[in-house]
Amino acid sequence: MTSDPYCPHPAVLRSVEPETPGVATFGMEFQEPARAAAFHHRPGQFNMVYLPGVGEVAISIASAPGEGVGLRHTIRFVGRVTNALQSLRPGAVLGLRGPYGSAWPVEEARGRDVVLVAGGLGLAPLRPAVKALLAERAQYGRLWLLYGARQPSDRLYVAEYADWERAGLELLVTVDRADASWRGAVGIVPLLFRKLALDPSRTLVLTCGPEVMMRATVHEAIDRGVAASDVYVSLERNMQCAVGLCGHCQLGPEFLCMNGPVFPYERVARFLGKEHF
Amino acid sequence: MVNTSAVVMEKSELGNLIARLWAEGYTVVGPTLAQGAIVFDELRTADQLPIGWTDEQEPGSYRLKRRDDGAYFGYAVGPHSWKKYLFPARLTLFSIERTADSFAVHQGSTDVPRYAFLGVRSCDLHAIAVQDRTFLHGPYVDPHYERRRERAFIIAVQCGTAASTCFCASMNTGPRATQGFDLALTELPEAFVVEVGSERGGALLVGLNVRAANGEIEAAHQVTETTKRQMTRTLDTSDMPALLYENLDHARWDDVAGRCLSCTNCTMVCPTCFCHSVDEVPDLLGERSERVRQWDSCFNPELSHVAGGSTRPDIRARYRQWLTHKLASWIDQFGVSGCVGCGRCITWCPVGIDLTEEVAAIRGSDRA
Question: Which residues 28-47 of A are in CB contact (within 8 Å) with B?
Answer without folding.
Answer: 31
